[in-house]
Amino acid sequence: MRLSNMTESLGRAVPLSVDFSKPEDYFIFIFQILFATTTVTTAGTIVIGILSTRALRIQNRFIFMLNTSIADTLIGFSVYYLGLFDVDEGYLSRNGTYSVLPSLLGVNVLTFMFAQFDRYFAVCHPFIYSRFVTRQCVICINVYSWVYTYGHLIIRNMLPLYQVIQMYLVTILMFQIIVLVKVAMTLKLYLIARYQLERDPPSAEKESKKESLRIIIFVVISFLVLWSPSFVNITIKLMTGRGLNFRNEATNVFAIMARFNALFTPSVYIWGSPALREAAIKTVWGKVCPKCNRR
């Protein structure tokens, strides 16, 4: 679909995202570097912490965290290209990547939805959950989120433009359904955390359930708030030909908001989970900064 544009970009060097002719150009360029570095550092810390700590690896909720953190780390690395060079990932792509890098957000969309159902069954139906939702099952679900996202992308890139538009309209409908499911599940999980768990006697299991529900609620709400403006703008441009246009990905405010999830989500994980915070300090920051480990 966009092979000609990509082929042309391969024959010449990709220019930077800004030309440094205005003071704000320096701010945009420095911001993208800091944002990419901070995201890779934060999300990468979680990936290493979970993989290095067996007590976390065997828990299903941390497998979902690991999956989104891997995607967030890759999103952070992608900013070094999308944010520093003149790239436009629209349908008439300029120096684009066939939407390979932006599709990392799609992995998180599916993972968060699956994680919500996981927490719902873990809290409301613990006997069924412990019997049927095994660690292998959760791993397969997370792998599926990658296979579906990039399988869909491969098919889309092989089709002509008019069929891609039709396919995208179906994707819009599916996303609206996913958003409604996410909102309904968020409300359900909030009510469970607010009323049902409060009646349970104090225990370590109760605190663990409250912690997991609090994290997933915060993460899903923030994801929808930060990602929805970009999706709405793309939908308006596709349906009506209007909407806001930006010079490239580095100046696209909506795309920056969507990618900001890659930094906000792992930050919420570290804030909401003492066990994950301890693992991150022990396996990463404790070795980089011994004083952090002593504290």
SS strand fraction? under 5%
Query: Average pLDDT value?
Result: 87
Using the CA coordinates, give the radius of gyration.
21 Å
The total of helices stands at 12
Kindly state the percentage of residues in helix. over 70%
Topology order in helix (H) and strand (E) letters: HHHHHHHHHHHH
Oligomer: single chain
Largest sheet: none
List keywords for this structure.
disordered N terminus; mainly alpha; 295 residues
Topology summary:
Layout: H1 3-10, H2 23-51, H3 54-57, H4 60-82, H5 104-124, H6 126-132, H7 135-158, H8 161-196, H9 204-240, H10 253-272, H11 274-288, H12 290-294
Helix pairs in contact: 2-4, 2-10, 2-11, 4-5, 4-7, 4-10, 5-6, 5-7, 5-8, 5-9, 8-9, 9-10, 10-11
Description:
With 295 residues, this protein is mainly α. It has 12 helices and no strands. It has helices at residues 3-10, 23-51, 54-57, 60-82, 104-124, 126-132, 135-158, 161-196, 204-240, 253-272, 274-288, 290-294. The relative contact order is 0.14.
